Amino acid sequence: MIALPYDYFLLSWFVLAVASTAYVAFDQFGGNPEPTVMKLGFILVALYMGPFGLLLYVLADKEPRPGEHERFTSPLWKQGVGSTIHCVAGDATGIILAATVTALLGLPMWIDLIVEYIAGFSFGLFIFQSLFMKKMMGGTYWENVRKSFMPEFISMNAMMAGMAPTMSLLMMGRDMRAMDPLELIFWGVMSLGVMVGFTTAYPFNVWMVKRKIKHGLMTARGGGHDQVGHEGHGGGEKPKKEMDGMQHGGSHQMGSDATTPQLGALAGVTSFLLISGMVLPGFSVNLSLSARDVDGSIMPPGMINTFDLPGEAMRDMAAVKPRQVTYAAAPDARGDKVLEPRVENGVKVFDIEASIIRWNILPHVAVEAYAYNRQVLGPRLQVTEGDHVRINFRNALPESTTVHWHGLIVPNEMDGPAKVTQDPVPPGGAYTYEFDVGQSGTYFYHSHDHPDRQQALGLYGALLIAPKDPANEVKADLDYAIQLQEWLKREWLTYPAMLMEGALPNYFTINGKAYPATDTVAMKVGQTIKLRFIGTNNNFVHPMHVHGGPFEVVAVDGVNLKDSARYHADTVNVGPGQRYDVVWTARKPGKWLVHCHIPHHTTNNNVEQRGGGGLMLVLNVQ
Protein backbone atom coordinates (compact mmCIF):
# COMPACT_ATOMS: atom_id res chain seq x y z
CA MET A 1 0.00 0.00 0.00
CA ILE A 2 1.25 3.46 -0.88
CA ALA A 3 0.38 5.50 2.21
CA LEU A 4 3.49 7.52 3.06
CA PRO A 5 6.15 9.18 0.87
CA TYR A 6 8.82 6.61 1.66
CA ASP A 7 6.64 3.86 0.22
CA TYR A 8 7.77 5.08 -3.19
CA PHE A 9 11.38 4.69 -2.07
CA LEU A 10 10.65 1.14 -0.90
CA LEU A 11 9.05 0.32 -4.23
CA SER A 12 12.13 1.64 -6.04
CA TRP A 13 14.41 -0.25 -3.66
CA PHE A 14 12.80 -3.59 -4.40
CA VAL A 15 12.93 -2.96 -8.13
CA LEU A 16 16.68 -2.44 -7.70
CA ALA A 17 16.88 -5.53 -5.48
CA VAL A 18 15.24 -7.72 -8.12
CA ALA A 19 17.50 -6.27 -10.82
CA SER A 20 20.59 -6.80 -8.64
CA THR A 21 19.58 -10.38 -7.89
CA ALA A 22 18.99 -11.10 -11.55
CA TYR A 23 22.43 -9.75 -12.48
CA VAL A 24 24.22 -11.72 -9.74
CA ALA A 25 22.41 -14.93 -10.67
CA PHE A 26 23.16 -14.49 -14.37
CA ASP A 27 26.81 -13.66 -13.76
CA GLN A 28 27.42 -16.37 -11.16
CA PHE A 29 26.00 -19.21 -13.23
CA GLY A 30 27.30 -17.66 -16.43
CA GLY A 31 30.94 -18.20 -15.61
CA ASN A 32 32.12 -17.00 -12.19
CA PRO A 33 34.30 -19.86 -10.84
CA GLU A 34 32.54 -20.16 -7.50
CA PRO A 35 31.16 -23.22 -5.66
CA THR A 36 27.42 -23.64 -5.99
CA VAL A 37 26.77 -22.93 -2.32
CA MET A 38 28.49 -19.54 -2.62
CA LYS A 39 26.65 -18.77 -5.85
CA LEU A 40 23.38 -19.33 -3.99
CA GLY A 41 24.67 -17.31 -1.05
CA PHE A 42 25.46 -14.23 -3.14
CA ILE A 43 22.14 -14.52 -4.97
CA LEU A 44 20.18 -14.61 -1.71
CA VAL A 45 22.17 -11.74 -0.22
CA ALA A 46 21.59 -9.65 -3.36
CA LEU A 47 17.88 -10.33 -2.92
CA TYR A 48 17.96 -9.35 0.76
CA MET A 49 20.40 -6.42 0.49
CA GLY A 50 19.60 -5.16 -2.99
CA PRO A 51 22.31 -3.01 -4.65
CA PHE A 52 24.54 -3.37 -1.56
CA GLY A 53 24.57 -7.13 -2.10
CA LEU A 54 25.48 -6.50 -5.73
CA LEU A 55 28.26 -4.15 -4.61
CA LEU A 56 29.72 -6.79 -2.30
CA TYR A 57 29.65 -9.34 -5.10
CA VAL A 58 31.38 -7.08 -7.60
CA LEU A 59 34.03 -5.81 -5.18
CA ALA A 60 34.82 -9.08 -3.42
CA ASP A 61 33.92 -12.08 -5.59
CA LYS A 62 33.23 -11.40 -9.27
CA GLU A 63 36.17 -12.63 -11.32
CA PRO A 64 37.60 -9.50 -13.00
CA ARG A 65 39.35 -11.41 -15.79
CA PRO A 66 39.52 -15.13 -16.66
CA GLY A 67 41.85 -17.08 -14.39
CA GLU A 68 42.17 -14.38 -11.74
CA HIS A 69 39.49 -15.43 -9.27
CA GLU A 70 41.92 -17.03 -6.79
CA ARG A 71 44.23 -14.02 -6.64
CA PHE A 72 41.37 -11.48 -6.73
CA THR A 73 39.59 -13.03 -3.73
CA SER A 74 42.76 -13.59 -1.67
CA PRO A 75 42.72 -10.49 0.63
CA LEU A 76 41.48 -11.26 4.10
CA TRP A 77 38.73 -8.60 3.98
CA LYS A 78 37.25 -10.32 0.92
CA GLN A 79 37.50 -13.71 2.57
CA GLY A 80 35.61 -12.21 5.51
CA VAL A 81 32.92 -11.01 3.11
CA GLY A 82 32.57 -14.53 1.75
CA SER A 83 32.29 -16.05 5.20
CA THR A 84 29.70 -13.47 6.26
CA ILE A 85 27.75 -13.91 3.02
CA HIS A 86 27.49 -17.60 3.75
CA CYS A 87 26.26 -16.88 7.26
CA VAL A 88 23.76 -14.23 6.20
CA ALA A 89 22.36 -16.25 3.31
CA GLY A 90 21.48 -19.19 5.55
CA ASP A 91 20.61 -17.45 8.80
CA ALA A 92 18.64 -14.60 7.26
CA THR A 93 16.59 -17.02 5.19
CA GLY A 94 15.52 -18.83 8.35
CA ILE A 95 14.87 -15.55 10.16
CA ILE A 96 12.72 -14.10 7.38
CA LEU A 97 10.68 -17.29 7.00
CA ALA A 98 10.11 -17.41 10.77
CA ALA A 99 9.16 -13.71 10.94
CA THR A 100 6.60 -14.21 8.19
CA VAL A 101 4.99 -17.23 9.84
CA THR A 102 4.91 -15.78 13.37
CA ALA A 103 3.37 -12.52 12.10
CA LEU A 104 0.66 -14.36 10.21
CA LEU A 105 -0.03 -16.50 13.29
CA GLY A 106 -0.37 -13.39 15.45
CA LEU A 107 2.40 -14.25 17.93
CA PRO A 108 3.81 -11.50 20.20
CA MET A 109 6.98 -9.77 19.09
CA TRP A 110 9.10 -11.22 21.90
CA ILE A 111 8.14 -14.76 20.90
CA ASP A 112 8.75 -13.83 17.28
CA LEU A 113 12.36 -12.85 18.09
CA ILE A 114 13.03 -16.15 19.85
CA VAL A 115 11.50 -18.18 17.01
CA GLU A 116 13.49 -16.15 14.48
CA TYR A 117 16.74 -16.91 16.30
CA ILE A 118 16.02 -20.64 16.51
CA ALA A 119 14.95 -20.80 12.86
CA GLY A 120 17.91 -18.75 11.62
CA PHE A 121 20.44 -20.75 13.62
CA SER A 122 18.89 -24.07 12.57
CA PHE A 123 18.69 -23.15 8.89
CA GLY A 124 22.26 -21.87 8.88
CA LEU A 125 23.72 -24.81 10.80
CA PHE A 126 21.81 -27.79 9.43
CA ILE A 127 21.27 -26.62 5.85
CA PHE A 128 23.83 -24.07 4.65
CA GLN A 129 26.79 -25.18 6.75
CA SER A 130 26.47 -28.89 7.37
CA LEU A 131 24.48 -29.97 4.29
CA PHE A 132 25.45 -27.62 1.48
CA MET A 133 29.17 -27.68 2.42
CA LYS A 134 29.38 -31.38 3.26
CA LYS A 135 31.27 -32.25 0.08
CA MET A 136 34.00 -29.68 0.54
CA MET A 137 34.33 -30.17 4.30
CA GLY A 138 34.50 -33.96 4.15
CA GLY A 139 33.28 -36.33 6.83
CA THR A 140 29.72 -37.28 7.72
CA TYR A 141 26.79 -34.87 7.99
CA TRP A 142 26.67 -35.05 11.79
CA GLU A 143 30.44 -34.59 12.03
CA ASN A 144 29.99 -31.38 10.07
CA VAL A 145 27.15 -30.33 12.38
CA ARG A 146 29.49 -30.75 15.34
CA LYS A 147 32.36 -28.89 13.67
CA SER A 148 30.13 -26.07 12.45
CA PHE A 149 28.23 -25.53 15.69
CA MET A 150 30.59 -23.07 17.41
CA PRO A 151 31.41 -20.86 14.36
CA GLU A 152 27.75 -20.80 13.40
CA PHE A 153 26.78 -19.95 17.00
CA ILE A 154 29.21 -17.02 17.09
CA SER A 155 28.25 -15.74 13.66
CA MET A 156 24.50 -16.11 14.23
CA ASN A 157 24.69 -14.35 17.59
CA ALA A 158 26.54 -11.42 16.04
CA MET A 159 24.14 -11.18 13.13
CA MET A 160 20.98 -11.40 15.24
CA ALA A 161 22.46 -8.85 17.66
CA GLY A 162 22.16 -6.37 14.80
CA MET A 163 18.94 -7.59 13.26
CA ALA A 164 16.86 -7.92 16.45
CA PRO A 165 16.89 -4.28 17.61
CA THR A 166 16.53 -3.05 14.05
CA MET A 167 13.39 -5.12 13.54
CA SER A 168 11.96 -4.46 17.01
CA LEU A 169 12.35 -0.69 16.95
CA LEU A 170 11.17 -0.26 13.37
CA MET A 171 8.34 -2.80 13.43
CA MET A 172 7.01 -1.43 16.73
CA GLY A 173 7.79 2.17 15.85
CA ARG A 174 5.54 4.74 14.27
CA ASP A 175 4.63 2.73 11.16
CA MET A 176 3.50 -0.68 12.36
CA ARG A 177 2.58 -1.86 8.91
CA ALA A 178 6.16 -3.12 9.25
CA MET A 179 4.80 -6.08 11.27
CA ASP A 180 2.58 -7.25 8.41
CA PRO A 181 4.17 -9.52 5.76
CA LEU A 182 1.52 -8.31 3.31
CA GLU A 183 2.95 -4.78 3.46
CA LEU A 184 5.95 -3.53 1.50
CA ILE A 185 7.55 -1.92 4.54
CA PHE A 186 7.76 -5.33 6.30
CA TRP A 187 10.21 -6.44 3.63
CA GLY A 188 11.98 -3.09 3.75
CA VAL A 189 12.63 -3.56 7.47
CA MET A 190 13.79 -7.12 6.83
CA SER A 191 16.18 -5.86 4.16
CA LEU A 192 17.60 -3.19 6.45
CA GLY A 193 17.84 -5.72 9.28
CA VAL A 194 19.90 -8.06 7.09
CA MET A 195 22.26 -5.21 6.21
CA VAL A 196 22.73 -4.28 9.86
CA GLY A 197 23.17 -7.97 10.73
CA PHE A 198 25.81 -8.35 8.02
CA THR A 199 27.68 -5.36 9.47
CA THR A 200 27.68 -6.70 13.03
CA ALA A 201 28.65 -10.24 11.95
CA TYR A 202 31.43 -9.23 9.54
CA PRO A 203 34.33 -8.54 11.99
CA PHE A 204 33.72 -11.83 13.82
CA ASN A 205 33.73 -13.70 10.51
CA VAL A 206 36.99 -12.04 9.46
CA TRP A 207 38.62 -13.27 12.67
CA MET A 208 37.23 -16.80 12.23
CA VAL A 209 38.53 -16.98 8.66
CA LYS A 210 41.93 -15.79 9.84
CA ARG A 211 41.97 -18.42 12.56
CA LYS A 212 40.86 -21.13 10.08
CA ILE A 213 37.53 -21.69 11.82
CA LYS A 214 35.41 -20.82 8.79
CA HIS A 215 35.76 -20.94 5.03
CA GLY A 216 35.97 -17.70 3.09
CA LEU A 217 35.58 -17.29 -0.64
CA MET A 218 36.42 -20.30 -2.83
CA THR A 219 37.13 -21.13 -6.43
CA ALA A 220 35.63 -24.01 -8.39
CA ARG A 221 37.36 -25.06 -11.61
CA GLY A 222 37.76 -28.21 -13.62
CA GLY A 223 34.67 -30.36 -13.38
CA GLY A 224 33.05 -28.31 -10.66
CA HIS A 225 35.51 -29.17 -7.85
CA ASP A 226 35.71 -26.64 -5.04
CA GLN A 227 38.93 -24.84 -4.20
CA VAL A 228 39.61 -22.18 -1.60
CA GLY A 229 41.24 -18.94 -2.53
CA HIS A 230 44.52 -17.67 -1.16
CA GLU A 231 42.91 -16.82 2.16
CA GLY A 232 40.38 -19.67 2.10
CA HIS A 233 41.82 -21.16 5.28
CA GLY A 234 42.76 -17.87 6.75
CA GLY A 235 46.42 -18.21 5.86
CA GLY A 236 48.67 -15.92 3.87
CA GLU A 237 49.68 -16.03 0.21
CA LYS A 238 50.15 -19.63 -0.91
CA PRO A 239 53.03 -20.66 -3.18
CA LYS A 240 52.20 -21.26 -6.83
CA LYS A 241 52.88 -25.03 -6.55
CA GLU A 242 50.27 -25.39 -3.80
CA MET A 243 47.81 -23.26 -5.73
CA ASP A 244 48.28 -25.37 -8.84
CA GLY A 245 47.53 -28.47 -6.83
CA MET A 246 44.37 -26.88 -5.43
CA GLN A 247 43.08 -26.30 -8.94
CA HIS A 248 42.33 -30.01 -9.14
CA GLY A 249 39.95 -30.22 -6.20
CA GLY A 250 40.02 -32.01 -2.91
CA SER A 251 38.56 -31.78 0.56
CA HIS A 252 38.87 -28.56 2.54
CA GLN A 253 38.94 -29.63 6.13
CA MET A 254 40.51 -26.88 8.22
CA GLY A 255 42.80 -27.11 11.21
CA SER A 256 41.91 -24.20 13.44
CA ASP A 257 44.63 -22.56 15.52
CA ALA A 258 42.10 -20.73 17.72
CA THR A 259 42.33 -21.47 21.42
CA THR A 260 39.43 -22.55 23.60
CA PRO A 261 39.55 -19.32 25.67
CA GLN A 262 39.37 -17.31 22.44
CA LEU A 263 36.33 -19.21 21.23
CA GLY A 264 34.73 -18.96 24.66
CA ALA A 265 35.32 -15.21 24.74
CA LEU A 266 33.78 -14.74 21.29
CA ALA A 267 30.81 -16.92 22.20
CA GLY A 268 30.31 -14.99 25.44
CA VAL A 269 30.59 -11.53 23.90
CA THR A 270 28.31 -12.31 20.97
CA SER A 271 25.79 -13.90 23.34
CA PHE A 272 25.83 -10.72 25.43
CA LEU A 273 25.31 -8.61 22.30
CA LEU A 274 22.48 -10.90 21.21
CA ILE A 275 20.66 -10.74 24.54
CA SER A 276 21.13 -6.96 24.68
CA GLY A 277 19.81 -6.56 21.16
CA MET A 278 16.71 -8.61 21.97
CA VAL A 279 15.98 -7.16 25.43
CA LEU A 280 16.90 -3.47 25.30
CA PRO A 281 14.27 -2.51 22.65
CA GLY A 282 11.67 -3.76 25.15
CA PHE A 283 12.45 -0.69 27.27
CA SER A 284 11.16 1.52 24.44
CA VAL A 285 8.48 -0.45 22.58
CA ASN A 286 5.79 -2.93 23.57
CA LEU A 287 7.20 -6.32 22.54
CA SER A 288 4.18 -8.12 23.98
CA LEU A 289 2.07 -7.03 21.00
CA SER A 290 1.56 -8.92 17.77
CA ALA A 291 0.81 -7.88 14.21
CA ARG A 292 -2.86 -8.56 14.88
CA ASP A 293 -2.84 -6.38 18.00
CA VAL A 294 -1.58 -3.30 16.17
CA ASP A 295 -3.39 -4.00 12.87
CA GLY A 296 -0.92 -2.09 10.71
CA SER A 297 -1.36 1.13 12.69
CA ILE A 298 0.48 4.24 11.52
CA MET A 299 0.93 6.59 14.48
CA PRO A 300 0.93 10.41 14.20
CA PRO A 301 4.32 12.10 13.73
CA GLY A 302 5.73 12.94 17.14
CA MET A 303 3.51 10.51 19.04
CA ILE A 304 5.26 9.09 22.11
CA ASN A 305 5.25 5.29 21.82
CA THR A 306 6.20 3.58 25.08
CA PHE A 307 6.73 -0.03 26.13
CA ASP A 308 3.42 -0.03 28.02
CA LEU A 309 1.25 1.55 25.31
CA PRO A 310 -1.58 -0.93 24.61
CA GLY A 311 -2.41 -2.09 21.12
CA GLU A 312 -5.97 -0.80 21.49
CA ALA A 313 -4.63 2.71 22.14
CA MET A 314 -2.43 2.45 19.05
CA ARG A 315 -5.39 1.49 16.90
CA ASP A 316 -7.46 4.37 18.26
CA MET A 317 -4.72 6.92 17.54
CA ALA A 318 -3.73 5.47 14.18
CA ALA A 319 -4.22 7.06 10.78
CA VAL A 320 -7.25 6.15 8.72
CA LYS A 321 -6.12 3.64 6.11
CA PRO A 322 -6.64 5.17 2.64
CA ARG A 323 -7.49 1.75 1.23
CA GLN A 324 -10.58 1.67 3.46
CA VAL A 325 -12.14 4.70 1.77
CA THR A 326 -15.35 3.59 0.05
CA TYR A 327 -16.49 6.92 -1.38
CA ALA A 328 -14.87 10.17 -2.50
CA ALA A 329 -17.13 13.19 -2.07
CA ALA A 330 -16.99 16.04 -4.56
CA PRO A 331 -14.54 18.76 -3.46
CA ASP A 332 -17.40 21.26 -3.07
CA ALA A 333 -19.78 18.85 -1.28
CA ARG A 334 -21.43 20.21 1.87
CA GLY A 335 -22.53 18.41 5.00
CA ASP A 336 -25.44 19.08 7.37
CA LYS A 337 -28.00 18.37 4.66
CA VAL A 338 -31.49 17.89 6.05
CA LEU A 339 -32.45 14.22 6.05
CA GLU A 340 -36.12 13.97 5.24
CA PRO A 341 -37.84 11.13 7.12
CA ARG A 342 -40.40 8.77 5.73
CA VAL A 343 -43.52 8.23 7.82
CA GLU A 344 -44.56 4.67 8.66
CA ASN A 345 -47.72 4.31 10.78
CA GLY A 346 -47.15 7.72 12.27
CA VAL A 347 -43.45 7.06 13.05
CA LYS A 348 -40.77 9.28 11.51
CA VAL A 349 -38.13 6.90 10.15
CA PHE A 350 -34.55 7.90 9.34
CA ASP A 351 -31.87 5.70 7.74
CA ILE A 352 -28.26 6.39 8.71
CA GLU A 353 -25.07 4.58 7.67
CA ALA A 354 -21.52 5.10 8.93
CA SER A 355 -18.67 4.59 6.46
CA ILE A 356 -15.22 5.92 5.52
CA ILE A 357 -15.06 8.61 2.86
CA ARG A 358 -12.64 11.14 1.42
CA TRP A 359 -13.80 14.67 2.21
CA ASN A 360 -12.38 18.05 1.27
CA ILE A 361 -12.13 20.49 4.15
CA LEU A 362 -10.43 22.89 1.72
CA PRO A 363 -10.27 22.72 -2.08
CA HIS A 364 -6.68 21.45 -1.85
CA VAL A 365 -6.90 19.54 1.46
CA ALA A 366 -8.81 16.26 1.71
CA VAL A 367 -9.15 14.07 4.78
CA GLU A 368 -10.07 10.43 5.22
CA ALA A 369 -13.16 10.79 7.39
CA TYR A 370 -15.69 8.67 9.21
CA ALA A 371 -19.04 9.90 7.97
CA TYR A 372 -22.78 9.45 8.37
CA ASN A 373 -24.49 9.12 4.98
CA ARG A 374 -21.32 10.07 3.13
CA GLN A 375 -21.13 13.64 4.43
CA VAL A 376 -19.14 15.54 7.07
CA LEU A 377 -20.78 16.55 9.21
CA GLY A 378 -23.64 14.05 9.16
CA PRO A 379 -27.15 14.79 7.93
CA ARG A 380 -29.32 17.13 9.96
CA LEU A 381 -32.22 15.47 11.74
CA GLN A 382 -35.13 17.87 12.20
CA VAL A 383 -38.06 16.67 14.30
CA THR A 384 -40.76 18.18 16.50
CA GLU A 385 -41.32 17.76 20.20
CA GLY A 386 -43.76 14.86 20.67
CA ASP A 387 -42.65 12.94 17.55
CA HIS A 388 -42.04 9.21 17.72
CA VAL A 389 -38.86 8.51 15.76
CA ARG A 390 -37.05 5.42 14.55
CA ILE A 391 -33.46 5.56 13.33
CA ASN A 392 -32.28 2.54 11.37
CA PHE A 393 -28.52 2.53 11.74
CA ARG A 394 -26.10 0.44 9.68
CA ASN A 395 -22.37 0.15 10.32
CA ALA A 396 -20.18 0.05 7.20
CA LEU A 397 -17.02 0.89 9.16
CA PRO A 398 -14.19 -1.64 9.64
CA GLU A 399 -14.73 -1.37 13.41
CA SER A 400 -17.64 -1.42 15.85
CA THR A 401 -19.62 1.71 16.66
CA THR A 402 -22.84 3.05 18.23
CA VAL A 403 -24.90 6.26 18.11
CA HIS A 404 -25.63 8.49 21.13
CA TRP A 405 -28.35 11.18 21.20
CA HIS A 406 -26.55 13.89 23.12
CA GLY A 407 -28.72 15.54 25.78
CA LEU A 408 -31.91 13.66 24.97
CA ILE A 409 -34.04 11.84 27.52
CA VAL A 410 -34.50 8.39 25.96
CA PRO A 411 -34.97 4.79 27.17
CA ASN A 412 -31.67 3.51 28.53
CA GLU A 413 -31.27 0.85 25.82
CA MET A 414 -31.54 3.61 23.21
CA ASP A 415 -28.86 5.86 24.75
CA GLY A 416 -25.92 4.38 22.80
CA PRO A 417 -22.86 3.93 25.10
CA ALA A 418 -21.07 0.82 23.84
CA LYS A 419 -20.85 -2.09 26.30
CA VAL A 420 -22.87 -0.11 28.84
CA THR A 421 -26.38 0.17 27.45
CA GLN A 422 -25.91 -1.88 24.27
CA ASP A 423 -23.52 -4.19 22.51
CA PRO A 424 -21.37 -2.35 19.96
CA VAL A 425 -22.68 -2.60 16.41
CA PRO A 426 -20.09 -4.75 14.59
CA PRO A 427 -18.82 -4.06 11.06
CA GLY A 428 -21.65 -4.87 8.68
CA GLY A 429 -24.14 -4.91 11.56
CA ALA A 430 -27.23 -2.83 12.23
CA TYR A 431 -29.19 -1.45 15.18
CA THR A 432 -32.53 0.32 15.45
CA TYR A 433 -32.94 3.27 17.80
CA GLU A 434 -36.54 4.22 18.61
CA PHE A 435 -37.92 6.71 21.11
CA ASP A 436 -40.38 9.51 21.77
CA VAL A 437 -39.03 13.04 21.53
CA GLY A 438 -39.95 14.88 24.70
CA GLN A 439 -37.71 17.95 24.45
CA SER A 440 -37.00 20.82 22.09
CA GLY A 441 -33.94 22.86 21.24
CA THR A 442 -30.43 22.35 19.84
CA TYR A 443 -28.94 18.88 20.22
CA PHE A 444 -26.64 16.57 18.27
CA TYR A 445 -25.81 12.90 17.78
CA HIS A 446 -22.42 11.22 17.65
CA SER A 447 -20.55 7.95 18.04
CA HIS A 448 -20.20 6.54 21.55
CA ASP A 449 -17.84 3.65 20.77
CA HIS A 450 -14.20 4.82 20.65
CA PRO A 451 -15.53 8.40 20.37
CA ASP A 452 -12.06 9.90 20.75
CA ARG A 453 -11.35 8.36 17.35
CA GLN A 454 -14.71 8.18 15.63
CA GLN A 455 -16.18 11.52 16.63
CA ALA A 456 -12.87 13.24 15.90
CA LEU A 457 -12.96 11.76 12.40
CA GLY A 458 -16.46 13.03 11.63
CA LEU A 459 -19.17 10.90 13.21
CA TYR A 460 -21.52 13.62 14.44
CA GLY A 461 -24.50 15.64 13.21
CA ALA A 462 -27.08 18.19 14.31
CA LEU A 463 -30.38 17.16 15.88
CA LEU A 464 -32.72 20.17 15.95
CA ILE A 465 -36.05 19.79 17.72
CA ALA A 466 -38.81 22.32 17.18
CA PRO A 467 -41.14 22.95 20.14
CA LYS A 468 -44.67 21.55 19.90
CA ASP A 469 -45.95 25.07 20.51
CA PRO A 470 -44.33 27.38 17.90
CA ALA A 471 -44.76 30.25 20.34
CA ASN A 472 -42.00 28.74 22.50
CA GLU A 473 -39.45 29.07 19.68
CA VAL A 474 -37.00 31.97 19.94
CA LYS A 475 -37.58 33.74 16.65
CA ALA A 476 -35.01 35.21 14.27
CA ASP A 477 -35.01 36.08 10.59
CA LEU A 478 -32.31 33.52 9.82
CA ASP A 479 -31.21 30.33 11.53
CA TYR A 480 -27.68 28.95 11.17
CA ALA A 481 -26.01 26.04 13.04
CA ILE A 482 -22.27 26.12 13.63
CA GLN A 483 -20.71 22.72 14.38
CA LEU A 484 -17.05 22.77 15.40
CA GLN A 485 -14.33 20.22 14.78
CA GLU A 486 -10.54 19.74 14.93
CA TRP A 487 -8.50 17.70 12.44
CA LEU A 488 -5.00 16.29 12.17
CA LYS A 489 -3.63 15.86 8.65
CA ARG A 490 0.08 15.08 8.28
CA GLU A 491 2.18 13.50 5.54
CA TRP A 492 -0.85 12.56 3.39
CA LEU A 493 -2.67 10.79 6.25
CA THR A 494 -5.57 11.71 8.53
CA TYR A 495 -5.35 11.00 12.27
CA PRO A 496 -7.91 11.59 15.02
CA ALA A 497 -6.94 14.85 16.68
CA MET A 498 -6.36 14.44 20.42
CA LEU A 499 -5.07 16.58 23.26
CA MET A 500 -1.83 14.66 23.66
CA GLU A 501 1.73 14.69 22.38
CA GLY A 502 1.96 14.26 18.64
CA ALA A 503 -1.81 14.31 18.05
CA LEU A 504 -2.68 18.01 18.32
CA PRO A 505 -4.83 19.28 15.44
CA ASN A 506 -3.53 21.45 12.63
CA TYR A 507 -6.87 22.10 10.86
CA PHE A 508 -10.18 23.32 12.25
CA THR A 509 -13.61 23.27 10.60
CA ILE A 510 -17.08 24.76 10.82
CA ASN A 511 -19.66 22.39 9.38
CA GLY A 512 -16.98 20.27 7.74
CA LYS A 513 -15.13 23.13 6.02
CA ALA A 514 -12.21 25.37 6.96
CA TYR A 515 -12.16 29.07 6.07
CA PRO A 516 -12.09 30.33 3.32
CA ALA A 517 -14.21 27.32 2.24
CA THR A 518 -16.77 27.99 4.99
CA ASP A 519 -20.15 29.54 4.19
CA THR A 520 -20.71 33.25 3.70
CA VAL A 521 -24.13 34.11 5.14
CA ALA A 522 -25.94 36.93 3.34
CA MET A 523 -27.94 39.35 5.52
CA LYS A 524 -29.50 42.78 5.36
CA VAL A 525 -29.18 45.60 7.84
CA GLY A 526 -31.75 45.15 10.58
CA GLN A 527 -32.13 41.41 10.19
CA THR A 528 -31.49 38.99 13.03
CA ILE A 529 -29.84 35.58 12.90
CA LYS A 530 -29.96 32.76 15.42
CA LEU A 531 -26.50 31.19 15.59
CA ARG A 532 -26.54 27.72 17.11
CA PHE A 533 -23.03 26.97 18.39
CA ILE A 534 -22.65 23.19 18.80
CA GLY A 535 -19.56 21.68 20.44
CA THR A 536 -19.27 18.60 18.23
CA ASN A 537 -15.50 18.86 18.62
CA ASN A 538 -13.52 16.58 20.94
CA ASN A 539 -10.76 18.65 22.45
CA PHE A 540 -10.70 22.42 22.93
CA VAL A 541 -12.98 25.01 24.47
CA HIS A 542 -13.49 27.45 21.60
CA PRO A 543 -14.25 31.09 22.54
CA MET A 544 -16.59 31.90 19.64
CA HIS A 545 -16.72 35.62 18.91
CA VAL A 546 -18.93 37.66 16.57
CA HIS A 547 -17.83 41.04 15.17
CA GLY A 548 -20.19 43.96 14.59
CA GLY A 549 -21.80 44.15 18.02
CA PRO A 550 -22.97 41.91 20.84
CA PHE A 551 -25.45 39.09 20.59
CA GLU A 552 -28.05 37.86 23.07
CA VAL A 553 -27.61 34.40 24.62
CA VAL A 554 -31.10 32.86 24.50
CA ALA A 555 -30.55 29.12 25.10
CA VAL A 556 -27.93 26.84 26.66
CA ASP A 557 -27.67 23.09 26.02
CA GLY A 558 -31.06 22.98 24.31
CA VAL A 559 -32.95 24.82 27.07
CA ASN A 560 -34.36 28.29 26.43
CA LEU A 561 -33.38 30.87 29.03
CA LYS A 562 -36.07 32.89 30.69
CA ASP A 563 -36.21 36.50 29.59
CA SER A 564 -34.68 37.56 32.90
CA ALA A 565 -31.78 35.12 32.48
CA ARG A 566 -30.82 36.12 28.95
CA TYR A 567 -27.73 38.25 28.60
CA HIS A 568 -25.64 40.08 26.03
CA ALA A 569 -22.09 39.12 25.11
CA ASP A 570 -19.80 39.03 22.11
CA THR A 571 -18.01 35.76 23.00
CA VAL A 572 -19.16 32.41 24.36
CA ASN A 573 -16.85 29.58 25.37
CA VAL A 574 -18.12 26.50 23.53
CA GLY A 575 -16.71 23.34 25.07
CA PRO A 576 -17.06 19.80 23.73
CA GLY A 577 -20.70 18.78 24.02
CA GLN A 578 -22.01 22.27 24.82
CA ARG A 579 -24.57 24.24 22.82
CA TYR A 580 -25.36 27.95 22.83
CA ASP A 581 -28.15 29.62 20.86
CA VAL A 582 -27.46 33.34 20.37
CA VAL A 583 -29.33 36.01 18.41
CA TRP A 584 -27.25 38.61 16.61
CA THR A 585 -28.56 41.74 14.91
CA ALA A 586 -27.02 43.09 11.72
CA ARG A 587 -26.52 46.72 12.75
CA LYS A 588 -24.27 48.01 9.98
CA PRO A 589 -23.33 46.87 6.47
CA GLY A 590 -20.06 45.05 5.91
CA LYS A 591 -18.35 41.69 6.29
CA TRP A 592 -18.59 40.66 9.93
CA LEU A 593 -16.57 37.72 11.19
CA VAL A 594 -17.70 34.82 13.32
CA HIS A 595 -14.59 33.08 14.61
CA CYS A 596 -12.76 31.32 17.41
CA HIS A 597 -10.71 33.80 19.42
CA ILE A 598 -7.72 31.43 19.70
CA PRO A 599 -5.63 32.69 16.75
CA HIS A 600 -4.09 29.29 16.00
CA HIS A 601 -7.58 27.92 15.46
CA THR A 602 -8.11 30.42 12.64
CA THR A 603 -5.24 29.10 10.54
CA ASN A 604 -4.87 26.16 8.18
CA ASN A 605 -1.80 24.14 9.08
CA ASN A 606 -0.49 27.31 10.80
CA VAL A 607 -1.02 29.39 7.64
CA GLU A 608 -3.56 32.18 7.07
CA GLN A 609 -5.42 32.24 3.76
CA ARG A 610 -7.35 35.32 2.67
CA GLY A 611 -7.13 36.75 6.15
CA GLY A 612 -7.49 33.66 8.25
CA GLY A 613 -8.51 30.01 8.21
CA GLY A 614 -10.10 27.26 10.25
CA LEU A 615 -12.91 28.38 12.56
CA MET A 616 -14.05 31.46 10.65
CA LEU A 617 -17.05 32.43 8.56
CA VAL A 618 -18.43 35.73 7.28
CA LEU A 619 -21.80 37.40 7.84
CA ASN A 620 -22.07 39.58 4.75
CA VAL A 621 -24.46 42.39 5.61
CA GLN A 622 -25.82 44.58 2.81
Helix % is 25-40%
**Envelope shape:** elongated
Cα distance, first to last residue? 52 Å
The low-confidence runs, each spanning 5 or more residues with pLDDT under 50, are 223-252
Helix count, per DSSP? Answer: 14
* Rg over CA atoms: 34 Å
The total strand number stands at 25
Average of the residue pLDDT scores: 91
Q: Tell me the strand percentage band.
A: 15-25%
List the domain count as a whole number. 3
Instruction: Look at the helices and sheets and give the structural class.
Output: alpha+beta
Describe this structure in words.
The chain is α+β, with helices and mostly antiparallel strands and 622 residues long. The chain has three domains: 19-61 and 70-239 and 262-282, no CATH class; 327-471, Cupredoxins -  blue copper proteins (Immunoglobulin-like); 480-621, Immunoglobulin-like (Sandwich). It has 14 helices and 25 strands. Strands 13, 14, 15, 17, 19, 20, 21 and 23 form an eight-stranded mixed sheet that branches. Strands 3, 4, 5, 6, 8 and 10 form a six-stranded mixed sheet that branches. Strands 16-25-24-18-22 form a five-stranded mixed sheet, with no helix packed on it. The two termini are 52 Å apart. Mean pLDDT is 91; it is low at 223-252.
Summarize the structure.
It is built from 14 helices and 25 strands. With 622 residues, it is α+β, with helices and mostly antiparallel strands. The longest helix is centred in the N-terminal third of the chain and has 31 residues, at 141-171.
